[in-house]
Amino acid sequence: MKLWNSFKGVLSNDIAIDLGTANTLVYVKGLGIVVNEPSVVAILRDNRGQKKVIEVGQAAKEMLGRTPGNIQAIRPLKDGVIADFEVTQVMIKQLIAKAQQHKTLFRPRIMISIPYGITEVEKRAVKEAALSASAREVYLIEQPMAAAIGAGLPITESSGNMIVDIGGGTTDVAVISLGGIVFSKSVRVGGDKMNESILNYIRRKYNLAIGERTSEMIKKTIGNAYPVGKETSMEVKGRDLLAGVPKTIEVSSDEIREAMSETVNGIVEAVKVTLERTPPELAADIVDKGIVMAGGGSLLKNLDVLLREETGLPVFLAEDPLAAVALGAGLALENMDYLKGVTID
Asked: Hey, which residues does 166 pair with through a beta bridge?
């Protein structure tokens, strides 16, 4: 039986998926990451209210805030979990099809990363979505574990490793030792909440309505978590809520830091709680090794400086923070015998 399973593994394109709120990455065994697309789906509704998916990924994201009434660009995942099962199913199918360059004899095994501590119902929804997308077997791996593997941390050793994975919808903070999660804290704040905070701040302070894509651009351009160096600013265009006409304003990096402060503080608090709950022996290892950050949210300017100031510990960025979870899930899938303890039921 084991030989037959090995034979099937050779003749199938096994796949790992980082099913993120903001982006979905697909890793194919032997090829690495072959798909990296926004988790956005464009839906056309006909006169009878029937839904039809017309675009997935980057093409759909370009439509956000720009569609006519009968087309809707949506994010089918919210806070790291499936909000619209049917649309997520279609999205996974299309991204898997894009990842598979040629037909294989056997259906693929699929490893999917999930936030730490999600419910059994949410786990089942993820598994069912993958099975309906032609998976032979589906395995789940928690995102902080996948991020730690992808960041190259020695997770199987008897020493403490701390990872902070900041995604679009969730932030997972975990201490890992001997191939298992000793303690983890998951909070439903991340890059999307930062964008939302900026959007609400500009609406409140300047009576200016801006879109999701604009708030994300502001975050990436002048957003920061800690004041280092001189203040910067940028022009922002939107719709004046009082006059109803287009308007341009200028916002500063200090304002944007203030706008995101509550979300950023939520991440810092999650790190502090995890450190407080870490066993003393493992805490001593973390003092020496420091904290490793992964995920798109970890790229926020000076977030590492803020965490260093708040914890007094060294803070490092993973080599490829955006891809760490997908890489880790892929490596776990390729080394199932060695890393079998890292997957969950």
From this structure: 171
- Which one, of 334, 294, 317, 340, lies nearest residue 27 by Cα? 334
Contact predicate 311/291, CB 8 Å: yes
- The C-alpha atoms of residue 173 and residue 24 are separated, in whole angstroms, by 20
pLDDT in tens, 41-58: 988 877 776 778 888 888
What does the DSSP 8-state code read for residue 335? T
Q: By mean pLDDT, which of 52-61, 137-146, 263-272, 331-340 is the weakest? A: 331-340
For position 5, what pLDDT does the model report?
47
Homologous superfamily of 161-189+264-318: ATPase, nucleotide binding domain (3.30.420.40)
234 DSSP assignment: E
Residue 121: pLDDT over 60: yes
Q: Which two tokens stand for residue 52?
A: 């039809």
What pLDDT is recorded for position 7? 42
| Number of CB atoms found within 10 A of residue 180's CB | 12
pLDDT (tens digit per residue) in 263-293: 999 999 999 999 999 999 999 999 999 999 9
**Which amino acid, 266?**
G
322: alpha, beta or left? (left if phi > 0; alpha if psi -120 to 50): alpha
Q: Is the dihedral of CA 216, 220, 222, 227 positive or negative?
A: positive
Q: In CATH, which of 3.90.640.10, 2.40.50.140, 1.20.1530.20, 3.40.50.300 is domain 191-259?
A: 3.90.640.10
d(CA 33, CA 275): 32
Tokens of 93: 């199918």
Cα-flanking dihedrals φ and ψ of residue 321, to 5°?
A: -60, -40
Rg (CA), the chain: 21
Backbone dihedral angles phi then psi of residue 56, each to the nearest 5 degrees: -135, 140
Q: What is the DSSP string of 147-211?
A: HHHHTT--TTSSS-EEEEEE-SS-EEEEEEETTEEEEEEEES-SHHHHHHHHHHHHHHHH-EE--
Measure the CA angle with vertex 321, ends 319 and 325; round to 5°: 110
